Amino acid sequence: MENILKFIHMIGLSIWIGSMVTWAFFAPKLNKFDPSKNTTSVLRDLFSKISWISYAVALIAGIGIRLTVDNGASDWSVVIGALLLAGAVIAFHSVATNISDALRGVFNGVMLLLALVSLYLATIYI
Predict the structure, then answer these.
(1) Per-residue confidence (pLDDT) for residue 14, from 0 to 100
(2) N or C end of the chain: smaller count of CB under 10 Å?
């Protein structure tokens, strides 16, 4: 069971990070090709759903690992803590629509950094 949870956790993290990186590369280009921003809005909603679902999968699997692993449980608490912090930053980024582009870029960088830290921690504890 532990190995299945670890696999699910890693898949969730991979999709979560992949959706963030993909959106970061394509969003600026879409704004140039789609002046009405209809396509951009639809794709933003799609990537947001993919991102939040994969985040939830990674978090739930991480909590499951934390509860089932006898040794190293405190290590998994660090991974879960990093995921929770990343989720808080992402949630704030999602609702804070009236911030400058520079500050939004900072939040994007922090989100990606926290996601990569979560992935790194998960890989070293597996």
Answers:
(1) 93
(2) N
The pairs formed by 48-52 with CB atoms below 8 angstroms and a separation of 24 or more are: 48/94, 50/15, 50/19, 51/16, 51/19, 51/20, 51/23, 51/90
Helix (H, G, I), strand (E, B) or coil at 58: helix
3-state helix, strand, coil in the chain (%, to 5): 90, 0, 10
Residue 93 to residues 78, 79, 86, 100, 126: CA-CA distances in angstroms? Answer: 22, 21, 10, 11, 30
Whether the predicted pLDDT of 32 surpasses 90: no
Within 8 A by CB and 6+ apart from 126, the residues are 6, 10
